[in-house]
Structure to design on (83 residues):
């Protein structure tokens, strides 16, 4: 399938880069194949796809949000030594 995709990139438009997305995973052989060809093909597997969907809020619903706070040491240092 990747070979067919690469061939279509070489077609009329003469594209030098393509993005190939699967909801599954890519085999080691698929990764090796795209590493050795001249055209750049970006592989996005199911996990990466979900991560991108969450990051760009595409087709997802936010269920919960959390705020993580840390101590602002500089706040207390400006009052250190004052009585």
């Amino acid at each position: 399938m990747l070979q067919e995709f690469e061939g279509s990139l070489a077609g009329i438009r003469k594209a030098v880069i393509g993005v190939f997305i699967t909801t599954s995973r890519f085999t080691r052989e698929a990764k090796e194949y795209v590493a050795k060809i001249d055209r750049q093909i970006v592989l996005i597997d199911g996990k990466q796809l979900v991560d991108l969907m969450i990051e760009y809020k595409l087709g997802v619903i936010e269920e919960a949000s959390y705020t993580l706070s840390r101590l602002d040491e500089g706040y207390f240092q400006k009052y250190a030594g004052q009585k």
